[in-house]
Structures are given as structure tokens and as C-alpha cells.
Amino acid sequence: MWLFFALFGYACLAVVSILDKFILSKEKVSPTVFVFYSTVFLFPLAVFIPWLTPLPSPLYWILVLIGASAFVFSLWAMYLAFQKSEISHSGPLIGALVPLLILVLSGVFLGETIQPTQIFGIILLSIGTLTIAIQKKKPHHDFWQTIKFAGASAFFFAIFHVTAKSLYSEFGFSHGFFYLWGTVGVIGLSLYLSKNVREVIFPEHNFWQIFISKILHKNTTRLQIVTVVADKVLSALGVFLIQYAVSIGSVTKVNALNGFQYGLLIVLVASLTKFSPKLFAEHYQAGEFKRELFAVLIIAVGLVYLVK
């Protein structure tokens, strides 16, 4: 059952990755602003926290804060990596590193054990996603910046997922979900409370003035509104499904399946580049598409070993 929820969730996030890149490139949105919009909608979940079973110790609140903060930092670093590189490269680079880091962290902190054949599947999935991330261009400033931010994003994502699994195991999925994601919403809202960040997000007016003016602005198209709404809905659905899969399955296995997300991402990007280049297109170097198809094959084999 966890496999179905995980695959469906990653399919949603593959579409979200394209929408993220579209919004970041077309709208010139600051990564900090995008993190605000990506997390603040979770704030209503915090309203339910006082009605939940109280955490038995302040140490668990520290665990919640670590997990929530790690998620926010991982988003910030991921969007910076997206801005500095094509998403079909920077996204899979993060995806290749996360399951390997989780494999280590879950073994150390959760005592999770994986069968040798499944470890081989995880390695194949990581190799496949890493193959997608490889670029033949000569290293340049943005390349190393991408490596830096992608590595930071993967590290914080790994911390978040291991923390989430610990909370779900300790308090059940529903309680752990509201504590963790409600806190993410509080942190997201706190970005607006910071004067420096607020000046970046809304430099001249208050929230509702900006919100209304954006809706009524003649340059704000229905497509832009639909794109942002679809991005947030699919993102929330994908995250929820993956988190539920984590709660009922292995955190290492579920996150290793992100290779499926990037394999599907290749197909979506190639299709859009071929049939709708004006809407979304990425440049393929000589032989790059064949290499990415080979990577998808490696990912497929890795999936077989992982679910054995």
C-alpha cells in the first residue's frame, strides 16, 4: 500500500517541479518569497495543535522544531539550485543524494534495517538520478553554486524525513503530521514578521493591498493564477501522500522512490520541449537525451530491486 501512495505522490511532485521552474523563471520570484508562499498556507494546521495530545517532553518540541526548520531550509536551498541550473539536472542531483543520506541517518537514529537487495535497488535509483544530473558543460560558477545548494537541500531534506518518521512512529500519523506541518506553517508566517524579509516580499504596501492589486492588475493573467494554485494544490497533495507512505513504510525506501519522480520529470520535460517549446523548453546537448533515457532504465531496474 505504501508503494501506491509514494508513487502517486512523486508523480504530483514531478508536475510541481515543472511549475516551480516556470514560476521562478517567468515571474522572477525570489526564492525567499517562494518559500514564504510555499509554507504559509500550512499555518492553519497550527490551529489544531492545542487540541492534540500534549507532547510528553520539551525534547519532542525540539525535535519538531528541528524537522520543521530543516524543511524550510531545504526548500530555500532547492529553489536556489533551480534558479542556477536547469531543473532536469539540479532536481535529480538532490534526488540522488537524499536517499543515500537517509539510508545512513535512519540506520543511526531510527535503527532501520534494509535487505541487501533493497540497498542495491536504492543505490541503482541514486545512480540513475545522479546520471540525469550530470552535465557535460565545463564547470563554471553557477555549476558549483548548484552543487552547493543542491547538497545543502538534500542534507536538510534527509534530516526532515528522518525526523518526520520518528514523530509519526511515536505519536501516530495524524498527530505527528499536525505538529510537524503546523510548525512549518508558523515558521513560514514568521518570514513575514521579519522586517527585512517583509521589505523584500511587500516593499511598499501591506499584504491585502498587494494581494488585491495583483488580482486586479491587467498584466495578471488567468493562466498565472491557475499555475500558482495548481502548483500549491499538487504540492500539498504530493507531500501528504509521501508523508503518509513514510508513516506506514520505510522512510529509506519511500525516499529512494524519488527516482521515479525524476524519471517521470524527464518524460514531461522532453514532451513539453518537443510539443510546447514556447511554454516550457530545455536545451539538450548532443547525446544527453539518450543518456537520460538510459538513466530512466537504471531507475526502473532499481525500483524492481527495491520492492522485492
Provide a brief overview of the structure.
With 308 residues, the chain is mainly alpha-helical.
Query: What fraction of the residues are assigned to beta strands by DSSP?
Result: under 5%
Helix percent band = over 70%
Inertia-based shape: globular
CA radius of gyration is 19 Å
Count the domains: 1
Q: Which class of secondary structure composition applies to the elements?
A: mainly alpha
What do you see in this structure?
The chain is mainly alpha-helical and 308 residues long. The protein has one domain (2-306). The chain contains 13 helices and no strands. Helix 3 runs antiparallel to helix 4 (87-110) and helix 5 (116-133) runs antiparallel to helix 13. The radius of gyration is 19 Å and the shape is globular. The protein starts with a helix and ends with a helix. The relative contact order is 0.20.
